[in-house]
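Case study 2.
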Amino acid sequence: MSNSIKKKIVIIGPAHPYRGGNAMFIQYLCNALSEKFEIKLINYSLLYPSFLFPGTTQYDQSEQVIQGFPNERLVNSINPISWIKTAHHIISEKADLVVFDWWNPFFGMCHWAMSLLVRKKYKGRILFITENFIFHEAWFVDSFLTKLGLRFADKFLALSKPVEKDLQSIAAGRPIFRSELPMFDYSLDTRFDGVAERAALGYTPDDKVLMFFGYVRKYKGLDILLRAFLLMLKQIPEAKLLVVGEFYDKPEIYTDIVRDNGTLESVKFVNQYVPNEEVGKYFAAADVMVQPYRSATNSGILNVAYSFGVPAVVTRVGGLVELVTDGETGILVEPESPEAIAEGVVRFYKLRETVNFSENIRERVAKSGFNGITEVFEGILGV
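Prediction:
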C-alpha cells in the first residue's frame, strides 16, 4: 500500500462520548486501522433511549479520553429518518468497505435499514463485526432481530469461536473471518502504588484482595461469587472481596447475600461507574479479578485487567476461554458453581507462589494487539 492511495473504510459503531467496552473497542480499532487505511467513523447521536438504559448515564464523564478518534454523530437508533440520512452519507463517502459493529439485537431494525439502503452501492463490500450473536440477556424477539439486522451483510468478522459457530447457522455461504478480541492498553501511562491504594481502601499489605469489576447484571454472576466467597474464607481467612461497578440490578439482591452470609466486614461495594483516570487504583489494590459469568462471548473488562498485569479467575463460558491460559494468565473454572469458583481462587493463590502471572500476561498482550485484526482487514480488502 506504500505506493498507492489508502483504501477507505467507513465504520458505523459507538465511540466517545459514549462509555463502555464497545466504544473503547471501536476507538482502538479505528486508530489501529488508520495506519493502513483511510477511516471514517460514524457514531450515534442517540445510542439507547433513556428508558431502556439501566445505568445513570450512557456518556463517559472521565477527564481523560482513551484512544479518542474523530467521528460524526449521525445515527439515532430509534429514528428511521436518521437511518436514511446516514445511509446517503455512507454512499457519498465512496468507500471500499462499509463496516457495521454488531453487539446487540436492539439495533436490528436500524442496521437492517441502513445496510439495505447502501447495499446497491456497496454490493459485496458490507462487513459486520460480530462481537455477540445473541445478547447476554436474550429476549424472545432477539433471534428475529439478529437475523434481520445481519441479513444484508456480505461477510462477517467474528471475535470469538462461539460467535463464529453461531454465525454459521445464518451465513448461507457468506464468508466468516476470524480474529481474537485484540488486547489493548488501558493504563493511561499512570502508575499507581499498590500499598497506598490498598491503604486508601482500608486493606493491609497482607490482605488477599480479589475484585469483581464492571457493571452488575444477572448474567455476570456476582451472586454466585458472593456465595463462593463464604467458602473461600474457610481456606483464606484474610481474603477480601472488592466489588467495583455500577449496579444495573437492585443492589439489595447482592447486599442481602452478604448480610445473610455474615461477610459484611470482608466485602466492599463501590457502586459507581469508574472514570478512566481512576480505574488503575482499583487494579493496583487487587491480586486477582474474578469473572463468575453465567454467559459471555467476550470481555472488555478482561482487557482492562490485563492492561494492569492483573490475572483473572473466569468461568468457562463463550470466548473467555480463548483469552485466559489456565495456570499462566489466570484460572478457568466451571460456571454457576460457587464451589468451583472458590477452588479456582484458592488454586490461584497457591500457584502465585511459583507462577509469574503478570509476566505471562505482558507476553500475551504483546502478542495479541491490533496488528492481527489489521491483517484480517488487509486480507478482506486484498491489499
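The chain has two domains: 8-182+369-381, 194-366.
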